[in-house]
Amino acid sequence: MLVIEDVHQYYGGSHTLRGVSLQARAGEITVVLGRNGVGKTTLLKSLMGLVPIRQGRIAFDGVELARRPVHERARRGIGYVPQGREIFPRLTVRENLLMGLASRPAGTALPAQLFELFPVLAEMQSRRGGDLSGGQQQQLAIARALAARPRLLVLDEPTEGIQPNIIQAIGRVLRQLARQGLDGEPMAILLVEQYYDFARELADRYVVLERGAVVASGGGDEMDAHGVRAMVAL
Ligand SMILES: Nc1ncnc2c1ncn2[C@@H]1O[C@H](COP(=O)(O)OP(=O)(O)OP(=O)(O)O)[C@@H](O)[C@H]1O
């Protein structure tokens, strides 16, 4: 389980995260919603160690990670799908997937299940990442994060700029991963999302951020009743 507690983050003098707390449990999809610029990406970067936090706790399965380096967070079972995908355009699909094993001992094999989850990647293994469509690149970014068999998968707006049929396919994969991971073990999923209907469909739990602070949270089935759509409407 992931426990984020009272996290404060600053960019210079600008106080971006103001005491954020949330939890993400195995078997559940926890969705973080909020308008542009409220600090969603900064929260995920803080979790991954890509930006330093000034105060607060980030613990995963009881291990305190807030002061640990990025690679150690990956090694301890956190997989990250960054906003904008950040695949390597000149590397092949297969090489991109192998990059996901950087935190694992040399010689670790790619899980065969990646190609069952995303059959299109099996067909395109020797194509360059940059030649894939946006939706295919997003699937590649998710598969790359899964290559190291994380127990927590963190995704930053995976639906951004993606066509509806691939959004649906990604939703089905996330649901399946939460339930049974790659090997039958439930996985924790932390999903940052601005697309309300997608978030609502997938969320077991939700958290709304506004100006760097949590302003609402609850069960996914309470989102409509709690008026979350209006809180994130652009
Ligand atoms: N590297 C940085 N240096 C200074 N300020 C930054 C930096 N990155 C983000 N910010 C600012 O911090 C605030 C939060 O940004 P962040 O990207 O976390 O928001 P967000 O909720 O993810 O937004 P979006 O949905 O647009 O991605 C914004 O005001 C942003 O301008």
From TrEMBL:
Residues 2-234 form the ABC transporter domain. Keywords: Amino-acid transport, ATP-binding, Cell membrane, Membrane, Nucleotide-binding, Transport. It holds the Pfam family ABC_tran. GO terms for molecular function: ATP binding; ATP hydrolysis activity; branched-chain amino acid transmembrane transporter activity. One of its GO terms (biological process) is L-amino acid transport. PROSITE patterns: ABC_TRANSPORTER_2 (PS50893). SMART domains: AAA. It comes from the Bacteria. PANTHER family: HIGH-AFFINITY BRANCHED-CHAIN AMINO ACID TRANSPORT ATP-BINDING PROTEIN, HIGH-AFFINITY BRANCHED-CHAIN AMINO ACID TRANSPORT ATP-BINDING PROTEIN LIVF. Belongs to the ABC transporter superfamily. This is High-affinity branched-chain amino acid transport ATP-binding protein LivF. It comes from Tepidimonas sediminis. The gene is livF_3.
